Amino acid sequence: MVHLGHPEYEPSRLIEEWRRDAQLGRTDVGLPKHIDIHAPVNRWRSHCTGFFSQWLSLLHAARKSIDSPAGDDHSSTSLT
Predict the structure, then answer these.
(1) I want to staple 48 with a disulfide (CB 3.0 to 4.6 A). Which of 7, 39, 67, 69 is the partner?
(2) What domain range includes position 12?
């Protein structure tokens, strides 16, 4: 399991949370890396969208395989 942080956040939200935590005196939260705190830019939106899109596709495929086991396509079912 990998913790992805909050890829759904807007860049300004990361800065707001960091400032809040710093004002509370939290020493376990460092300055956000790889982002200009004065002019944050979202560089991860496309990666976030791609990751979650692929994850949902994987879940959908897994669910389909559970709901319809291999060889059980009902194409040879006879009503007589």
Answers:
(1) 7
(2) 1-45
Measure the CA–CA gap between 59 and 76, rounded to whole angstroms.
Answer: 28
Tokens of 42: 């979202």
3-state helix, strand, coil in the chain (%, to 5): 45, 0, 55
Q: Is residue 51 part of a domain?
A: no
Q: What is the pLDDT of residues 28-68, one digit of tens each?
A: 988 888 788 888 887 777 777 888 889 899 999 988 888 77
Indicate the pTM of the whole model: 0.49
d(CA 43, CA 3): 18
